[in-house]
């Protein structure tokens, strides 16, 4: 479905169902609210699916794989060829995120949305990599929209296959640079505060990275009121694909988990484009990249996990799969006060 139509069709969460879910939580034989955010997230998930019966048995991690022309400016410790290498390893189940998914019975779906080379990874390619934004806009507005629409399409395909929970992952060398550029413009924050070492950058490299971002922003002057303009000028196709996953998941009433820094940037774009999408987007962990906290605060979201992770690939979101599995199982199967003939606790305020 096209971007405009998707944005128009996304509905707010079902408040009535969420009230019923709260009643169910409060009837479970345990101190009230004692599972904290886990109760809140499961309740939110009932509002998303529009039923008190949440089923996340089938979980999937989508890896949006793309190359970023800005790598040419020496902003990453790794070469561009690493993107395709890791992307192909996703197919073999051989990456950190894949190992974590295997452990919690989740599938991994890699998507080539814009890698510089062709591989065996399923091809939804918008371009063979983006341009170096120090010299020219990363992509055209049309390409940015096409990238978002690929994500919407993929979310739709996964919905048709019966998945009940989607995690957003990415593989794209250089994408912490594009993410810092987008975050800086959308949050109106200094580039220095939004930029970190990504996958491990020297101090000299970090200075180069900050300079490149400043140059790109000065050169193209992306409009902070127009998230697609920002995405096109200094963003990337990996980010665009994730924006589409958030919107496409919301359209099909599937909860979509954010991962770390890059994924949070994509979520912010999705919410700016479509405020109704907000309720469908769940936070997982707080990335160690410096912009992560500001991004979550801007979205009014709180991470369930704080483990100093800074890996991307969806690893933080997959860590949350296990927590959510446990929470949903308690919600669905645990005895109530009535079941065990215990008087319900009074609310303690
Ligand atoms: C082997 C390897 C596996 C990865 N898995 C995720 N990333 C992470 O690092 C990249 C972003 O960092 P930067 O902006 O500094 O290039 C992304 O691909 C992200 O997913 C990886 C990076 C590497 C090198
Ligand atoms: O938090 C992230 O998403 C992240 C951090 C560093 C490198 N790649 C991804």
From TrEMBL:
Its family? Belongs to the CobT family.
What keywords sit in the KW lines? Cobalamin biosynthesis, Glycosyltransferase, Transferase
Q: Which GO terms of type biological process are on file?
A: cobalamin biosynthetic process
Q: Does the keyword Glycosyltransferase apply?
A: yes
From the UniProt record, list the reaction(s) this protein catalyses.
5,6-dimethylbenzimidazole + nicotinate beta-D-ribonucleotide = alpha-ribazole 5'-phosphate + nicotinate + H(+)
Q: What gene name does this entry carry?
A: cobT
For molecular function, the Gene Ontology terms on record are:
nicotinate-nucleotide-dimethylbenzimidazole phosphoribosyltransferase activity
User: Cross-referenced PANTHER family, in alphabetical order?
Assistant: NICOTINATE-NUCLEOTIDE--DIMETHYLBENZIMIDAZOLE PHOSPHORIBOSYLTRANSFERASE
The top EC class, named as a word, is transferase
InterPro entries from the UniProt entry: Nict_dMeBzImd_PRibTrfase, Nict_dMeBzImd_PRibTrfase_bact, Nict_dMeBzImd_PRibTrfase_N, Nict_dMeBzImd_PRibTrfase_sf
Name this protein carries in UniProt: Nicotinate-nucleotide--dimethylbenzimidazole phosphoribosyltransferase
Bilayer-crossing residues are: none
The protein's matches in SUPFAM superfamilies, at most eight in alphabetical order, are given as: Nicotinate mononucleotide:5,6-dimethylbenzimidazole phosphoribosyltransferase (CobT)
Active-site residues, Swiss-Prot/TrEMBL: 313
Write out the function statement from the record. Catalyzes the synthesis of alpha-ribazole-5'-phosphate from nicotinate mononucleotide (NAMN) and 5,6-dimethylbenzimidazole (DMB).
Q: In which pathway does it act?
A: Nucleoside biosynthesis; alpha-ribazole biosynthesis; alpha-ribazole from 5,6-dimethylbenzimidazole: step 1/2
EC number per UniProt: 2.4.2.21
CDD domains from the UniProt entry: DMB-PRT_CobT
Q: Name one Pfam family in it.
A: DBI_PRT
């Amino acid at each position: 479905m096209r971007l405009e139509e998707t944005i128009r069709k996304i509905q707010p969460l079902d408040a009535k169902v969420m009230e019923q879910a709260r009643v169910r939580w409060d009837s479970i034989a345990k101190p009230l609210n004692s599972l904290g955010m886990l109760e809140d997230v499961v309740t939110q998930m009932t509002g998303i699916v529009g039923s008190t019966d949440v089923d996340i048995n089938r979980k999937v991690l989508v890896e949006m794989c793309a190359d970023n022309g800005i790598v040419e400016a020496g902003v990453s410790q790794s070469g561009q060829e690493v993107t395709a290498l890791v992307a192909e390893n996703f197919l073999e189940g051989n990456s950190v995120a894949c190992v974590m998914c295997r452990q919690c019975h989740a599938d991994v779906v890699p998507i080539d949305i814009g890698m510089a080379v062709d591989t065996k990874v399923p091809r939804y390619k918008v371009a063979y990599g983006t341009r170096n934004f120090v010299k020219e806009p990363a992509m055209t507005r049309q390409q940015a929209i096409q990238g978002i629409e690929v994500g919407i399409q993929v979310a739709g395909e996964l919905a048709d296959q019966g998945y009940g929970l989607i995690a957003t992952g990415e593989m794209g060398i250089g994408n912490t640079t594009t993410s810092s550029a987008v975050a800086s413009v959308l949050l109106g924050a200094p580039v220095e505060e939004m930029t970190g070492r990504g996958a491990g950058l020297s101090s000299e490299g970090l200075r180069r990275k900050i300079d490149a971002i400043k140059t790109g922003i000065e050169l193209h002057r992306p409009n902070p009121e127009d998230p697609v303009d920002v995405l096109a000028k200094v963003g990337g196709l990996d980010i665009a694909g994730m924006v589409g996953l958030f919107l496409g998941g919301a359209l099909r009433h599937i909860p979509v988990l954010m991962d770390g820094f890059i994924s949070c940037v994509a979520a912010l774009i999705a919410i700016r484009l479509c405020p109704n999408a907000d309720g469908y987007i769940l936070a997982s962990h707080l990335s160690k990249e410096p912009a992560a906290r500001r991004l979550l605060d801007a979205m009014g979201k709180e991470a369930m996990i704080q483990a100093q992770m800074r890996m991307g690939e969806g690893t933080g979101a997959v860590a949350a799969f296990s927590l959510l599995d446990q929470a949903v199982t308690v919600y669905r199967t645990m005895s109530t006060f009535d079941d065990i003939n215990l008087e319900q606790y009074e609310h303690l305020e």
